[in-house]
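Researcher: Please predict.
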Amino acid sequence: MSKKKIEEYLEALTSTEMKERGRRALPTTHVLEWADYPFRYAAPAFQEFIKNGTRAAAQEARDTYAQILGVYAAILARDYAKADAFMETYGAGPAPEPLRAMRFTRRFTMPPIDLPAVQGAWPTEPSLFVSCDPGYLRAYAVPLLRSVAQAAPSANVHLHIMGMADVPAIDGIRITSTHEAVPADFPAREYFGAVRLARFAQALESAGAPLIMVDADALVTADFRPLFSGRHAAMRVRAGRIEPWTQYSACCLRGTADSLNYYKAVADIVLRTMHAPFWGMDQYALLAGHVQEHTPIDLFGPDVASVTDETPGVFWFTAGNAKLSLSTGQSPYAQLFRRYSKDSLG
């Protein structure tokens, strides 16, 4: 059972659900109600996968890819204890990949890593929370901050900089900031992407006020402050996704007093998983934390968190190859980005 064949199979299953959602004029990248999660319209294909994946994992204990298929199948069936059992077998294999740290009903057995000290003070008012390294600050967060000043004048923004850099001065918004010296023991991309959730939990606990975290390479097109009024955690959740690090999106998160324990659980999962880091561990942690804490989560639709380059939401995101052509692309997103970037990209 090759990894390539598995990936092709999973891609075909997801595509089936996406096509069915598209036929019904539903967004293919957002769950609008929990009844649609993780799949709804292509249920027979997913039920067949659940049966086949579970059988493969049970019969081929020495095949690490079969164990991962069993994990995926168990998660789709919402049998998280079985997913953990398959993970235990997978992790005991001869050369497990970093994914061996995933657990769902319980935490990975390694202790949480120690984080470096934070310089500065966490926010004390409802704020937009942005975490990035100095390079992303210059290239992407500065345009983001300029878009905030345009769309939500006088809003509060908190910058957590992973490294040392001057805080940009942006007229029209109030910026607070913290810094940390990034340890050299971990791969930078995984550290930046996942540890920001631990910092978000710290900021949320300290602030005693709602916070919204967005990717540093986002733009704001409308006033986001009405979103602070929600009581629960909120995020974008994807329909028809199989891998547990692709289902809950970390691009846009709301934290509240009622969801603090959830985000603290997510932070603990991240810090335990950093012993075996992998790309997407932040989003895996959002799912695992939800399984363990049962915290209510509101769903952000495309009107709040848009991921298409053509149509904005309150928060507007781009990714992949589109991000590489922002300086020359003609999409509405690229044109708005250039309006705010000025000399940010250098």
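Model: The mean pLDDT is 93.
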